[in-house]
Amino acid sequence: MMTSLELMRALLATALAGSAAMAVVLALRGMVRRRLGASAAYLLWLAVPAALLAVLLPAPHMAVPPMTAIGTAMSSAATRTATGMSPVLPWSALLGATWLVGALATAAWLLRQQHRFARGLGRLRRRDDGLWQAQATTGLPAIIGLLPPRIVLPVDFEQRYTAQERRLVLLHERVHLRRGDIVVNALLAAMQCLYWFNPLVPLAVRRCREDQEFSCDERVIAGGGARRSYGNAMLKTGLVSSSLPVGCPWQGEHPLKERIAMLKHPVPGKKQWLAMVLLSAGLSSGLGLAAWAAQPLALPQVAAGAGAGSTAMQPATGETPDAPARMPGFAAMTPPRYPPSMHTGQVLLKVEVAADGTATRVTVDRSSGHDDLDEAAMAAARGWTFVPAYRNGRAVAGEVSVPVRFEMDALSPGTGDAS
């Protein structure tokens, strides 16, 4: 199960990768829409989930020769009496709780908007044609709901629009349904909850939904829609009184002037469609690969395992502690000295290893809960010599995680220390 620290790291990594993808799309969408059409700009947003998912894939690995310890055990003979130590402040848990409060608050805010819009529709009535009719007019027609989505029409649908306009309005909503835009908007709402701390997310969500509407308008015109009648239908539709996070209102918070201006643009041809698909696929795969490759290189983790009464490290590649020290790829690791407190626990160290195999920086990645154990493990690790990581046949700097477990024998009282 993912710990709060691991969750915070995943959120931070995906937030950084997603922000980079959003910034690229926001910079390109205007130019792409002018040259290739609104649908091309909408397809660009696939780069954002591609970057988010790429970061969650396993990081690229660096080949490292096996590491083991010379002198794998240090006997301890001492009583089990231990003095109390102050626990390490759980910063990761506090960060996790803060994120959870923000995510729940954002979810409550979005649900309130959804409920407010649905309540403003009044009672819905199912029509003979399978559509739904509300008692209100503001913000309608619209698609609401997720399972299943429903096209909801205003109470004066037949009176407000001409037959041609009604056909175009329904065609617009059915394009949304056919493409699954309601699911896209639900995912955008979920992203707002997960990344409520990212100031770029609200702007990206707003622009993505604008491109969604521009693209839908373009598809209606490409399907034989009359531009003038379609523009008149837009002008006849009232703006929504509140946002609809999971839904597709016909006239939402989208720039009406820009939507009508888009109707004058020519419909993309086959060459433009091919270009937009290639551009979207290339950008999504490129940003996804860049996000994946930008992760810190993952070195094989040295597994900790020590018998009772010892602190020890075991090799990560299956060798036993009794493997001969003359074999290549071994590292000198003097086990930590057991603190007088006789606490037990496991410390996870993060060691930055230089190209010459020396430890340049040692930090505690996960504390044992006892300061003396953490300090003893770090003090020992600073004197370790590692086999460095290799890339293209050359030794390079890297990073390795080393768990160190402190355990005590069940000893009889009165025995002294031994090492």
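Next protein, fold it too.
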Amino acid sequence: MTRLGVGLTYVPGLDHIIDGVADLLDVVEIEPQSLWRIRGDGGITVDEDVLGRLCDLPGARLLHGVGNPVGGSCPPDLRQTALFAELAGRLHTPWVSEHLAFNRVADRRGGFHTGFMLPPSQTEAGAHAAARSIRTMADALPVPLAVEIGTNYLRPRSGDLPDGAFARRVAEESGCGLLLDLHNVLANERNGRGSVDDLLAELPLDRVWEVHLAGGSEYRGYWLDAHSGLPDDDLLALAGRVLPRLPALRAVLFEVAPSAVPHLATGAVRELLLAVREMWPPAASIAPLTSPRPADVPHPAGRQPTAPCEWEFALGSLVIGRDPQTPLAHELVTDPAIGLLRDLVAEFRGSALTGTLRYTMRLLFLTLGSVGVGELLSGYTRSCPPRLFASEEAFAFADHLREARPPVPWLTDVVQLDLGLLRARLDGSPCTVGLRTDPTALMTELGAGRLPVAPPQGHFRVRLVDDGTTGRQDEETRLTV
């Protein structure tokens, strides 16, 4: 099999861009978690309507996981891995990819999610733990697995393996391929982790099957891997130097966050795809796409200074606002990146709530203001660890509001409306809720960004349908949500 070529990673809202560059697309990459829905009974289903639209897009298909990383001591989630494998078979992908990171922590209380993919312990023991997790996932997949070298905002630690040496160690022991996100490694250089050239000198370049390009932004003195737009000139120059050096490279993808899509111009994306084609001309031959046999590398004797599980517990606890009171945590908390990671986790959780509890969050902001909502969210995040899926975060926050009981009028009814809409969307079947406030007034005014003025009170039954339409059973009225 030869290379796939140049393409995009699909996100909601990108359809008009794809229509305008369809003649240049060789491959479209899909993030499987964006297709999954958590039902009320806890099961995960695939959104077949969205999947059908994605199957009609031009080019070949790839899958890139964003919620089941394989860089930590906790094995990958079996439910997600099984769905990943099923989608890989249905889409006929030649390989799939996940992140060399962790987002789950084991502890005596059953463990918790971190709300953000965090860098693994870059020790020999950490490499061994990551390789074990990678092999666990790879053994359950019908196609080879590549892992992405992530962004690491932390300062380098004495005694740790350098970034490139760690990735090499993991790849050699696990037998996986590599996804080289050039924006990630450029961000690491800009943030003081080490030079891109030093990393490339350590990497097994013949294992790089895929490259990602993206844009970033500055925040708190750091360069963020924000996927906030087109690659800058430095990144394009880096790509021009690196792409010809990758003998097994088969795909180059441009990534962008959904929030940045409205600011993208179709013409600019066309220019980017054309530029990548020019800097990565077709080669006469390409190295075979195989997962090399895992290297038989001896493991060092004796206990490592920092066990991977100790690293994950300390770092994961700190970024969600807990203090585990361990020597490692006391060391890590002095790193300014801990404050940055806390901000990023809080931003991700807040964005999840804004997207799933639209009317609730608008009511809270209109009533309490940004300071009051910030205090409410801080109390929630301190008491409740992050959830993996946005829908789970929404239900957990609704429970917190019931306990906190902030002085916000109509809050109970608005939360019920939002949760009903969410259940209807997730289960694919109508959901009926009972309210004491007229839903027409609530949704009309809040939808326009205003507080309701003396909305009618009474007993209302609202039938919420998964197509986004609600109907009130006590009147011949239907509302579009």
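About the second fold: DSSP finds 16 helices and 18 strands in the chain.
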